[in-house]
Every structure is written in C-alpha cells, then in structure tokens.
Specification:
Layout lengths: L1 H7 L3 H18 L3 H12 L2 H11 L2 H17 L3 H18 L2 H17 L3 H24 L1
Helix pairs in contact: 1-2, 2-3, 3-4, 4-5, 5-6, 5-7, 6-7, 7-8
C-alpha cells in the first residue's frame, strides 16, 4: 500500500492522504467499511478509536493487536499503569486465541513496562515466558 511506504519514509502527511483516498474508495465498494476504518485508524495513530471499534465488534484479535499498540503509546507517555492494564488484557486475548506470537509480544511489552517500574524479577519471568512462547511457535512451524 502506498500509504505504508510513505509512513516508513517518514512522510505521515502523504501517508494520510493515501489512507484517506483508499478509505473513500473502500466506502464506495464495500459495506463493511467500519472494519476498514478501524484498520486505517490504527495505522494513522487513532488507536483509541480503533480500540473502541474492536471492543464493540467483538473481534478479540483486532482488540488484542490494537491494545498492544495502545499500550506502547501509554508507555511512551509514561502512563505505566494504563499501559500494563491494556497490555495484560491483550495478552489474555492472545492466550485465549492460541496466538503464541501475540502472547510472546505481549510478554515482551509487559516486561518493558515492569522494567520501567523497577519490578525486575517479574520482568525477567515475562522475558523467559516470551522466549518459551516463541520457541514453541517455531517448533510448530518446523512440524509443518
């Protein structure tokens, strides 16, 4: 997608233009524009709006993914308790869905938060769990 390329090149204004144009085309073509809108909101950094959509829609995978991004945003704003709560929710959703990669990513994010809160033993356990989750996921791929 052109918008992704401009985003990676550091030109959010052009990326936004591409995303908006794609969204307007999507509105004309498909009836499920809310799901696409939530995806664009997430890409554009409107994380709370995307999170609210996935919360109402019941999409646990979408909610878990945007929850991780929202947790990262809270972490960057030094809102560590909010970051921890939302990332823990994402981890639980990934656990329920069986997503080992999602679980590992959530554990790494939680470890980062706990390190910032000086809770090093708990952070170490989460990093070990993340490594183990990734190892199990890789082993599953080896069987295929």
């Amino acid at each position: 997608m052109g918008g992704d390329a401009y985003q990676r090149l550091g030109d959010p204004a052009k990326a936004n233009g591409y995303y908006r144009k794609a969204l307007s085309i999507q509105v004309e073509i498909e009836s499920d524009t809310l799901g696409s809108a939530a995806s664009f909101d997430m890409r554009l950094g409107n994380l709370q709006r995307a999170y609210d959509y996935y919360l109402q829609s019941g999409s646990s995978t979408g909610l878990a993914l945007v929850g991780l991004r929202l947790g990262e945003q809270y972490f960057q704003q030094n809102e560590l308790d909010s970051a921890r709560a939302i990332v823990e929710r994402s981890r639980n959703l990934f656990l329920k869905s069986g997503s080992r990669e999602g679980e590992a990513k959530a554990n790494m994010e939680l470890a980062k938060i706990l390190i910032a809160k000086k809770q090093l033993p708990s952070a170490g356990k989460l990093l070990k769990d993340a490594t183990e989750s990734q190892r199990r996921a890789i082993n599953l791929w080896a069987l295929l």
